[in-house]
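Async update (no meeting this week)

Hi team, since we skipped the sync, here's where things stand on the single-chain job. The sequence we agreed to prioritize is pasted below, unchanged from the tracker. I ran it this morning and attached the output directly underneath so nobody has to dig for it. Comments welcome in thread, and please keep replies under the output.
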Amino acid sequence: MFDLTNKIVLIVGGRGYLGRDFCQALRSQNASVISADLPLESQAASKSAFNNEFSDIDQVDVDVTDEDSVSKMITLIIEKYGCIDTLIFSVTAKPHDFYAPFTECSLEGWQSVIHTELDGLFLVAQEVGRAMEKREQGNIILISSIYGVVGNDQRLYEDSNLAELYADEDEEKERSQIFSHSVYPVVKGGVISLTRYLAAYWGEKNIRVNCISPGGVYHEGENETFVKKYSAKVPLGRKAEVREISGAVVYLTSNESSYVTGQNIIIDGGWTIW
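Output:
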């Protein structure tokens, strides 16, 4: 139904949990996909695994917080492909104290997330937008979260092993009680607000800007206590599968969504209707 042949799609954050599935879904509809991620040595194993799985997808290095790095990335892509039809920005950062209570969170951690997710989005959208303005057409899809729309229910994280699964610091992994960091809804709400601003700003240039806000997406290894607590709050009674988010990405990339802009598409199994 959604033929994306000849569509040039740049996914910033393509090696992430959602980004990888976006790559797969878009590729399956014949899009030409470019994945942009951090050029860190620590990413070497991830980059190699990605190459093995997606040998036909170009990978480019970028530090979204560095203006020169962003500019070089966009220049490189346009020189090779001629244009960028769709930008997908799916970047998430976590401070070292991501699971700490609010009163123990550091200013450094707070600022690092804002710098990566909001400042980075500003730089990437600005640079891609300049190129799209010249063509007077383009499409931008931003990835946010339902926690940019509603408040966090901290009770869900009691007896959860999320810190053990996802924390980078040993101290964080050993927390008996974890919390969802206050900066998370701040940046996700900012992404939604910027979506509306840019959609209005670029509408006359035929550049569409939309946002997708997923609810909880199932990760292998999550403990049953957390999954049951979360699912009990969802009208459909379960967490999302990643393919259910990718379907919306494919739709927004396609010509079938050509009259859709400024929207925040919530994919949460009904979480936010209560």
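Quick observations from my side:
The mean pLDDT is 92.
The first strand starts at residue 8 and ends at 12.
Reply here if anything looks off.
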